[in-house]
């Protein structure tokens, strides 16, 4: 049996459809996190289960952190343009800057 490893994900859309897809994914992730948080606080057994799985939940949270993948590259311009999320904090902005450095924009 073979397994595939995803190295990167590329979404190529025009701005409106891309924004709808992005906002839908963000909203779904926030809703699932809210449901999970509520379920983990419902009973003592659930709380104990959370404590036993806490490291796995931290790993998942870190992997899904949008600040760690901030910065989209615009194509078809006379140079490289990195578009950062409007709500990005300092960490997210730094990630966008690193994308720019990799692509020769800065």
Structural notes for this entry:
This protein folds into two domains: 15-64; 67-106, no CATH class. It contains three helices and two strands. It is mainly alpha-helical and 106 residues long. The chain has a two-stranded antiparallel ribbon with strand order 1-2. The longest helix has 26 residues, at 15-40. The model has no long low-confidence stretch (mean pLDDT 80). The protein is elongated, with a radius of gyration of 18 Å. Helix content is 56%, strand content 6%. Strand 1 (72-74) and strand 2 form a beta hairpin.
Q: What is the helix fraction of residues, given as a range?
A: 55-70%
| Model regions low in confidence, pLDDT < 50 over at least 5 residues | none
Number of helices: 3
The class by helix and strand makeup works out as: mainly alpha
Averaged pLDDT: 80
Order of helices and strands: HHEEH
Distance between the termini: 44 Å
Radius of gyration over C-alpha positions, nearest whole angstrom: 18 Å
Task: Please describe the biggest sheet, giving its number of strands, its sense, and whether it closes into a barrel.
Answer: 2 strands, antiparallel
Coarse morphology: elongated
Summarize the structure.
It contains three helices and two strands, in the order H-H-E-E-H. It is mostly helical.
């Amino acid at each position: 049996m073979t397994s595939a490893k995803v190295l990167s994900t590329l979404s190529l859309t025009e701005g409106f459809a891309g924004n709808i897809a992005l906002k839908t994914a963000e909203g779904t992730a926030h809703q699932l996190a809210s449901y999970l948080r509520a379920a983990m606080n419902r009973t003592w057994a659930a709380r104990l289960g959370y404590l036993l799985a806490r490291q796995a939940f931290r790993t998942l949270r870190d992997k899904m952190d949008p600040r760690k993948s901030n910065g989209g590259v615009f194509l078809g311009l006379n140079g490289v343009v990195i578009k950062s999320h409007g709500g990005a904090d300092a960490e997210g902005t730094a990630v966008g800057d690193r994308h720019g450095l990799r692509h020769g924009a800065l």
